[in-house]
Amino acid sequence: MATRSSDVSADTPPMFTPFSLRDLTLSNRVVVSPMCMYSADDLDGTPTDFHVVHLGSRAVGGVGLVFTEMTQISREGRISPGDAGIYDDKHIEPWKRVVDFVHNRSDAKIGMQLGHAGRKACEPIAWLRDTPLTDEEKWEVVAPSAIPFGPGSEMPREMNQGDIAKVIDDFVSGAERANKAGFDIIELHGGHGYLLSSFISPLSNKRTDKYGGSLENRMRLPLEVFRAVRAVWPEEKPISCRISAVDWDDHGNQIEDGIEVARMFKQAGLDIIDVSSGNVTSVRRPVTPGLFQTPFSEAIREAVGMPTMTVGNIATPEQINGVIAEGRADLCCVAKGHLFDPYFVRHAARALGYDLKWPKQYPAAAMFNPEPKEVR
Ligand SMILES: Cc1cc2nc3c(=O)[nH]c(=O)nc-3n(C[C@H](O)[C@H](O)[C@H](O)COP(=O)(O)O)c2cc1C
Fold it and tell me: What is residue 244's predicted lDDT score, i.e. its pLDDT?
């Protein structure tokens, strides 16, 4: 007997139990992980029909929460000219179209990941990597220290106090615009070597002022950003932050540092931490099979006592049920799985015998038999 999505009972698969943060309630534990799509066709941050269809179809696909890609808080904070942005009032209405579709046509909630690429800025669009930007197309790259991300990356300028103040202001304006567009949650991108992450990692932050040195100092800017954003983001709406819990480098942050980072964010009032790892330098981390990042989420959840999201190689409903039931994370982010299959959650529901509500336009889908006995 299938369990209906309207009732939560002892039989409900852990993956399909609701989860709340402040006044936000997600109908299940699966999240579309933030994924850059480089598809702002005006080359100035504006989301397009692509974003409505891309994020909208994954919302209809049954997830609890859809995250936008890393959406840049300033023009100079873009990874590439195709990045989506929230640095101008002209971006609010097109994002509102995406949000309204998700709210009106699915049971999903929608979050915006806010970011600044730091020393990973000023790259060609992903599928144009063989065509470097011309001098006219390039812009100035800023970072905690004047150390390029890798061979071929732009040499960043070390940020001064004015740059730091501007970044905080830009995050605040981005959050205010995200609220006007109707987003339910925002996530700061504090991982993967982008600006906030590059302050946290000792591999990219060699500053000698109060923003460098000890972990407490390296966390100063991310915490200043968080507090400033929290002050303008509505009280009833939660905030997340994605971090690289480890740098995968003997001289970088280890899991003990990742735990302290989470603890500092929790003390500042962060609601949930999205636990990723690495990508802080151009040196590739080891190829790691299975749920290789979930131990970091588990360690943080256990040591700090705060809700976590886990991400990385999640491919099956059994994995998600295991993670949730064993308390290794509160939410599971699926990235590549959602590129492969926008209906990842609907297929999981079918595999688990769970009766996930269809949109009102699609009830006939429940009568479709994908495995007919008679094939002719
Ligand atoms: C095309 C693509 C774009 C990505 N862009 C972002 C991004 O904007 N922000 C982010 O935090 N992670 C980004 N990631 C990382 C994913 O969110 C996720 O952490 C990673 O792919 C591992 O999850 P998976 O094994 O389910 O793909 C991206 C990944 C992919 C494949």
Answer: 98
